[in-house]
Amino acid sequence: MKKLKLVMVGNGMAGVKTLEELLRTAPGLYDITVFGAELHPNYNRVLLSPVLAGEQTPDEIVLNPLSWYAEHGITLHLGDTVTAIDRAARVVHTANGRSAPYNRLLLATGSRPFVPPVPGHTLTGVMAYRDLADTHAMIDAAARHRHAVVIGGGLLGLEAANGLLQRGMAVTVVHLGTHLLDRQLDDTAATLLRQTLEARGLRFALGAQTEALLPDAAGRVRAVLLRDGTELPAELVVMAAGIRPRTELAEQAGLHCERGIVVNDTLQTVTDPRVYAVGECAAHRGVAYGLVAPLYEQAQVCATHLAQHGVGRYQGSSVSAKLKVTGIDLFSAGDFRGEAGTESIVLHDPQTGVYKKLVLQGDRLVGACLYGDTEDGSWYFRLLREGHSVGALRDQLMFGPPATWNEPCMAKEAPAA
């Protein structure tokens, strides 16, 4: 039987995970062609921070070497960007003049960093932090220059700042919010984190807004000017102010985009059922996810439909957050702040730097914020995600799963009608 043709645009973690699942369940169904804009095979972007810090090498974070593509008969084109999709003819065209017909098209175009358009953002020495090329450029800059400023105190910004610190730079983090990781931690945990990072040598400008990036005579950035008039020396400025889904190609092809390429529960685009989208470029029920776990959940569902099994529905994901900085343990998930109608159980030991906050609504765990001791984070996340009743465990919930805990015996809320 003649094979169907599957073309995948993008060669990142979500897309290749989809191929892995597809090859496992329907190994002979498609001739597969992959286009990747980068020159590298699929690698673990989550581990870019350890590469920057010198704790791992680029080769150690490769997930699928070139041999994997060859072994599975996948035609791989690296360093070639798809520039147009002809949905009527079912063919894609690339910057290098290639054309590839498809029966099914999988868009895994990921996201791009958001660079605030402040004066000076195009100066030499100003960069985003998103891929291996950015990581290599930052390592090179750290070897040549002394002062760095990271704009953005979220997960990626703090990982970039720590990596540059490990490379010997003097680093200041500029953050618009008054607390670090304000989307992941409550004020108490954020304060503990700041104190730990300051003890390592990082500096912070919190509640600060960047007014402009100032050049030297050669056109390289030399300082960051804050709105209050403060000048921070910087020969390197790293923008870590968030990401935006890459939707330009989909928009040019007439696919509906809103906060990403809009997909349904089977990860098919709502515009064209022959076109699928997974990962950071996709918007499902109004949400575009930027963490690995939801993207892998999307990949599993998408693969079942590409395999023509017709099973599986993606209904959204619960997410948790961790910081990839050696020696710092933090975890958060769900409503960790504690909205109206909830109550919190808190343990805080300032001497050991341990802080735990569990948020309950009735007999359900709805949020968790842990700092200094995250050993039970995965268990709390399961309780939260799966809706188990924890009423019988309330007195010992703070101390992790009891030895007699048996998941199948725990009551679970009935699904909403």
Structure characteristics:
alpha/beta, FAD/NAD(P)-binding domain, Enolase-like, domain 1, disordered C terminus, 417 residues
Short overview:
By secondary structure, the protein is an alpha/beta fold.
Blueprint (SSEs and pairs):
Blueprint: E1 4-9, H1 13-25, E2 30-36, H2 48-52, H3 66-71, E3 75-78, E4 82-86, E5 91-94, E6 99-101, E7 104-107, E8 111-113, E9 126-128, H4 132-144, E10 147-151, H5 155-166, E11 170-175, H6 187-200, E12 203-206, E13 210-215, E14 221-226, E15 231-233, E16 236-239, E17 243-245, H7 248-252, E18 261-263, E19 275-277, E20 282-284, H8 292-306, E21 320-322, E22 330-334, E23 343-349, E24 354-361, E25 364-371, H9 377-386
Helix pairs in contact: 1-8
Number of domain units: 3
The appropriate CATH architecture of the largest domain is 3-Layer(bba) Sandwich
CATH superfamily of the largest domain: FAD/NAD(P)-binding domain
Judging from the principal axes of the Cα atoms, what is the shape? globular
CATH topology annotation of the largest domain: FAD/NAD(P)-binding domain
Number of E strands = 25
Portion of residues in helices? 10-25%
What is the residue-mean pLDDT, rounded to a whole number?
Answer: 94
- Amino- and carboxy-terminal Cα gap: 44 Å
Poorly predicted sequence stretches spanning 5 or more consecutive residues: 408-417
**Roughly what fraction of the amino acids lie in strands?**
25-35%
Q: Strand order across the biggest sheet?
A: 3-2-1-7-19
In the CATH scheme, the class of the largest domain would be Alpha Beta
Individual helix count: 9
For the report, how would you describe the main beta sheet? 5 strands, parallel
Family: Belongs to the FAD-dependent oxidoreductase family.
Organism: Pelomonas baiyunensis
Pfam family, one: Rubredoxin_C
Cofactor: FAD
